[in-house]
Fold this sequence. Notes:
The complex is a heterodimer. By secondary structure, chain A is of the alpha/beta class. Chain A folds into two domains: 1-85 and 163-263, Rossmann fold; 95-161, no CATH class. Helix content of chain A is 37%, strand content 22%. In chain A, a hairpin with a 6-residue loop joins β8 and β9 (224-229). Residues 1-9 of chain A have low confidence and may be disordered. By secondary structure, chain B is an all-alpha fold. Chain B has a single domain, classed as Orthogonal Bundle (MetI-like fold). Chain B has twelve helices and no strands. The longest helix of chain B has 34 residues, at 85-118. Chain B is flat. The model of chain B has no long low-confidence stretch (mean pLDDT 89). Chains A and B meet through α3, α5 and α6 of A and α1, α8 and α9 of B.
Amino acid sequence: MTLARxxxxxxxxxxxxxxVRLDAVSKTYGRGPASLLAxxxxxLTVAPGEFVCILGASGCGKSTLLSLVAGLDPVTSxxxxxxxxxxxxxxxxxxxxxxxxxxxxxxxxxRMRGVPRPDRRTLAIRLLETVRLHGxxxxxxxxxxxxxxxxxxxxxxxAQDADVLLMDEPFGALDAMTRDLLHDEIERIWRERxxxxxxxxHNVREAVRLGDRVVLLSSxxxxxxxxxxxxxxxxxxxxxxxxxxxxxxxxxxxxAEVARHGH
Amino acid sequence: xxxxxxxxxxxxxxALELGPPPPTKEWTPARIAAKVWQSLWPKALALIxxxxxxxxxVTSGWKSPYVLPGPGPVFDELRHEITTAAFWNAxxxxxxxxxxxxxxxxxxxxxxxxxxxxxxxxxAAIGSLITGLQTMPSVVWFPFAILLFKISEGAIMFVVILxxxxxxxxxxxxxxDYVPPTWKRVGKVLGMRGLSLYRxxxxxxxxxxxxxxxxxxxxxxxxSLMAGELLVIVVGQxxxxxxxxxxxxxxxxxxxxxxxxxxxxxxxxxxIAFNAADNALRRRWGLTQT
Lengths: 263, 290
């Protein structure tokens, strides 16, 4: 079942063993002349254990794409198949519940999953250790920094026992230093837990730093414009020359795409 | 933090961002005294200002002391009153009515509020009616209440509940309306549906608004109750309102003012309790800056 990360996914094995498969997915909001085509026949196959970054400028429907995969929204046409995989979604805002402690916020996800009460506490504490929040179990969300809150949200997502993790610009609101450190963390957790990650961002370097593959979407409507396999060996650094080089190439394409809308 | 995971730049940054823990202050008797003094002196000053002004008006001879006694005779009367069983019985009768009426109002207000927030047609039908009821002066209901229930506890309760329930319902409705959409999306992602969505997300999330609605509901209940006890005097039930009315009938000005002070005092005490609950909630949620 092991799949080399750099292998192209359009092999037969990957086709049958995809964690997420989108087939000509379109999404239209509204009806009639006021309707907006957000996604236009997006096809994408993500192999189990693959880290795919979806990159695009504003209005490319990247958040819409994740909502569709998570099942929060119905597709207008096309199909999405996640097979037997469990899917968790993380947002740009941590959106923790202020009436619960840090542990309580993780426990609520376990409870919704049907984990019996006696096991919840230990499991939650173990998940908080995974995101390096040992010693903060009894704090309330407002007592934590932005980066720590986002890690609680990550622990909550992991508590859903999903093997597919959808991340919607999870580090977009954090400062560069925190974001840089959290890249290491999410990479470690992805590898330790053999997760499949679909990571949406508008930050080109972040996409190259993290992804096995970067999928570039066009804007209004969102279409798959280009795919870039990232062959840079891990561990990577966001400021390395390799990352910067590929990021520059992608940025050029992205700029051309954005310029297309400039009149 | 004995695990090896703590030795990482991430945890280092956490420590830097959170800063050193605030120095824990010990609760020495001197510190407690200072704290109590700090919160008490403005209230003491306010009391002194009121008493001085009151005494000045009395001394000016604007009204005869027979109608408007000074603080001295009134507090003498009060000191005598609190030693009598009848006084505590009056408080007991009034507070029992307040608690029962207010509790029923909470049950009705919460049920109606939750139903209106959950069902769109119901909101269109009675949403604005609730706000309308809230603006009604509760005394207006008394003629109808007396017609329905005669001179009885029932008439008083009816008006107390009608006064309090709309505020409580409205507090809950606006709390539910303003649950942030991102929390609802999280709830959906975690698999909350129907009742579990209400139980684990919507109700706890609307708690702050519910508490302030309940606080407002209490003030309406208390006002309605006092109006009711003056208008509907049930034989054998010497409540605070009945005692107040009795003092007027007997032209007993010191007793009358003493009961006004008692009613004011109860109002202030309950307000302090509500504020304490509200502040505790805000602190837990991180809505206050220490």
